[in-house]
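Chapter summary example.
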Amino acid sequence: MALNMSCALEQLRYMHSVQLYSSTSLLSSYVITMMKNCVDLLDPVNQCEILMYNADCHFENREFSKAEVTYRKAMTAFKAITKNKGKMHLANLDLSDVHIKYKIYQCCSEMKNDDGALNALESIPRKQRTVKISLVLAKLYQKREMDRPAITCYKDVLKHCPLALDCFVELLKLGEQPDDLLGMIPSNCNLEWLPTFFKAHACILSKDYPKRVLTFTALNQQAGLSGNPDLLCDLAESCYRSADISTAMQHFNTLHLQDPHWLKGMDLYAYLLSEDGHPAELEKLATHLFSISEVHAEPWTAMGYHAKCNGDYTKAVYLAAKAVELDSFNNQALLLKGASLRMLGEAKVAVSHFKHALKLAPNRLEPYREIMNCYIQENRKNEAVAVAKNAVRILGSYPDSLALYASALMSDPGSYDKVIKITEQALALDPNHKAAIEIRCNITQRQQNYDETIRFLLRAIQQHGCSNLHTMLADCYIHVSKYSDAVDHYNIALSLNPNCTEAKEGLEKIHGIEYGLSHGSEHEDSHEQFINEDDDVDGDDNLHVATTIDWPHETPWF
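The structure predicted for these 558 residues follows.
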C-alpha cells in the first residue's frame, strides 16, 4: 500500500515546491483522511511532511486558525519521530522544530494573538534562534515594554548583521548609548556617515530636536546621501518635533513629490495638513495613498484625518481603528482615534488610547495635550494641570511644553498672571511661537484689554497667517465696535480655512448685530448677548462636546 502512495508523495512535494497551493491543499486533504483511516499507510516522517504541506496551504489561503491547528499536529508528529527514531530520519526533509514553531508564530501573529506568538518563539532555545527569530522577539518584547530582553535580542541580531541600522535606532530609543553601539560595528563596515547617523538619532535621548535637525540636514547635504527618502522623512519629523511646522511640511511635500509611492511618515504629514487647514491637499493625499496600498496604516490614518476635518468623527474613529488593527505601533492612528472619540464626547475611552500612544512615544507632546484636553472636557481641571506640569518636567522647558502648561491653567481666572508669566517665558525662547501668542492674546482678551490684544495680534499675523489668529483679531474688533475690520478678518480666516466654524459663527453674529441696529429695539441686546457669550469662559458647558450618537453602554464597538 505504501508503494502505491509514492506517486502522490512526489506530486505533493513538487506542487508545493512550485507553489500550487490550491492543488496541494486538495490532494493533501485526501491523503490526510487516508492516513487517519489506515494507520500504517505512511511512515511517521511522511505523515509529518504531508501535514506541513497542508498547513502551508491553509496559511497561504489566510486560514490562519486552521493552519495553526495543523502546524501543531505536525509539531506533535515531529516530536514523536525525534523521540523514537532520532533526527537522522528527517535528514532528507527541509524540516525542523524551529521552522514549525516559527510558522505557528506567524499564524498567531496574523490572528493578533500576541501571547501565542511570544510563547511559540520563546520555546525555541536561544542557541537555535536564527537572526530573523531574534529580531521578531525583540519587537515583541519592545511592544510589551520588556526592555532588557528586547535589548538582548536586538544585540543578537547585530552580532550577525552589524549594519542592521533599524536595530541601532531601536536600541537608541531603548536608552543605549551611541558610543557603545558604534563599538559593535567592525572596522571594515564603518561607513563614513554612520557616526553622524548615530548622533542624529541619539538626539532623541537628549530631546535636543533643533540639534537633530541640524545633524540630519548635514547628512542630507552630503553628496552621496542627498535626496534619500528615509533621510528626508527623518528630517521632516525632526523639524516637526522642533516646532518648525512649515519646514516640516515642506520636507514632507518634497518627499511625496520625489517618491509618490512612499508611505512612511505620510500619516504625520496628513496630521499637519489637517491642523494647518489644508483640506483639499489632505483629501488629495489620502486618496492617493489609498491607491497605493490598503494593507498599511498610513492611508487609513490619512483618510481618517480627512474625515475628522469634515466633522465626521464617527468615520474618523472607524478609519483610525482599522489603521491600529493593521499596525498596533502606529502612534498617529492612536492619537487620531482618541481625538475623534473625544470630539464624540467619549473622553474616558479616549484617555486610554492617548495613554497607549504615550507609552509608544513618551517624548511626544501630543499625548500629553490630548489627555489634558480630555480632563478639561470632564471638568477635572486639577488633573489637567498635573498632566501639563508633568509634560514640562519630562520634556523640558521648551516653548511647546510651556504653552501646554499655560493652556491648562487658563480655566482658572486666578491663574491669569501665572499664565502670562509662562507665555512670556515661552516667547522669550521663541518670539514667534504661535500657541504661546494665542494663549497670551486669549488672556488679555478675557481681561477685556482689547486694544493691547489687537496690537499684539496685528504683529503676530505678520508671522503666522493662520485662521485662528485672524478669528481672534476679528472677535476683538467686534468688542471695540469695528465691524468692517472684523468682517475682513473673518473672511481672511475662511480663505485660509474654509471649515473654520468660529469665523462662520462670527460673521453670523455680526449680521445679527447689524440687523438689530437697523431694525429697532427688539434686537438691541444682540451685541450685549455676544459680549456676554464670549466672556463666559468658566461655565462647564463650554468644556463638553455634545453628541447625538447613542453609544452602547457595555463593550462599545470601538
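To summarize the output: The CA atoms of residues 117 and 135 lie 13 Å apart.
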